[in-house]
């Protein structure tokens, strides 16, 4: 499966300035009209940015597309997770698309080791991501199969934008496998029902549409697969989020590692 293209790439393919391509080639707009169009486009982007509560431009554009990236949300949640888990974030495995960006951010933290699994093909990578892949820090792997790590290899495993594309048939195997390689805990970021995640034209890149499930569905599933929610970690995360006035845009579940 290939990873979905970023919003910015889609915009780049269609032209950077809205409406400019709509003019007839023989008609030459005046400089003042061209300037007005550019200023108008900037004002629209600025309005969307302001309406997003101070979020990045990419987030604002993502909202216009009607989608929600839990991997992008993870970047905002990392300081809260650091506060909640403390030393348990000393050795982290991230599983999800754009894992190179998450791993790079974690590696900037003092006394933190980080690895990543990209569940979709890496179509385009920058030099930093190529370096991480070359050194085996980031791997491309199908998470429907056993992970190439020993049990309890990582203190904390964080998953974003991955489990929503798995059917219960594969979740029954994948989630216990993710919990197997975690020594101190497993954190899952999942979309809320009603959030649009993938357009019809992009379904082939994932193989199936995202299945956004309710929190009650997930709780029942955790019980059925013998996964126990980590109430202590959940409470610490909620307290740290409240202090920072942070409200996650994705569901965040904290699970205990497997006892065996």
Automatic annotation (TrEMBL):
Transmembrane domains' residue ranges:
32-49
Q: Name one GO biological process term.
A: pectin metabolic process
Q: Name one GO molecular function term.
A: methyltransferase activity
Record's keyword annotation contains Transmembrane helix: yes
SUPFAM superfamilies according to UniProt = S-adenosyl-L-methionine-dependent methyltransferases
Task: State the UniProt keywords alphabetically.
Answer: Membrane, Transmembrane, Transmembrane helix
Concerning InterPro entries, the annotation shows: CGR2/3, SAM-dependent_MTases_sf
The name of this protein is Pectin methylesterase CGR3
């Amino acid at each position: 499966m290939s990873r979905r293209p970023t919003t910015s790439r889609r915009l780049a393919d269609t032209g950077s300035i809205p409406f400019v391509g709509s003019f007839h080639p023989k008609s030459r707009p005046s400089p003042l009209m061209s300037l007005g169009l550019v200023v108008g486009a900037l004002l629209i982007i600025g309005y969307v940015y302001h309406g997003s509560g101070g979020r990045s431009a990419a987030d604002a554009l993502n909202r216009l597309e009607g989608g929600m990236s839990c991997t992008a949300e993870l970047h905002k949640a990392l300081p809260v997770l650091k506060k909640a888990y403390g030393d348990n974030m000393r050795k982290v495995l991230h599983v999800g698309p754009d894992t190179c960006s998450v791993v790079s951010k974690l590696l900037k933290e003092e006394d933190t080791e980080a690895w990543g699994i990209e569940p979709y093909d890496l179509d385009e990578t920058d030099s930093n991501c190529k370096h991480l892949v070359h050194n085996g820090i980031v791997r491309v792997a199908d998470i429907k199969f056993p992970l190439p790590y020993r049990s309890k290899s990582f203190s904390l495993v964080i998953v974003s934008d991955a489990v929503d594309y798995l059917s219960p048939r594969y979740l029954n195997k994948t989630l216990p496998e993710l919990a197997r390689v975690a020594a101190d805990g497993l954190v899952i970021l999942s979309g809320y029902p009603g959030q649009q995640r993938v357009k019809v034209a992009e379904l082939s890149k994932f193989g199936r549409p995202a299945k956004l499930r309710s929190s009650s569905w997930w709780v029942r599933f955790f019980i059925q697969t013998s996964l126990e929610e980590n109430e202590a970690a959940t409470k610490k995360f909620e307290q740290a989020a409240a202090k920072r006035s942070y409200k996650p845009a994705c569901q965040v579940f904290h699970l205990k590692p497997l006892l065996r």
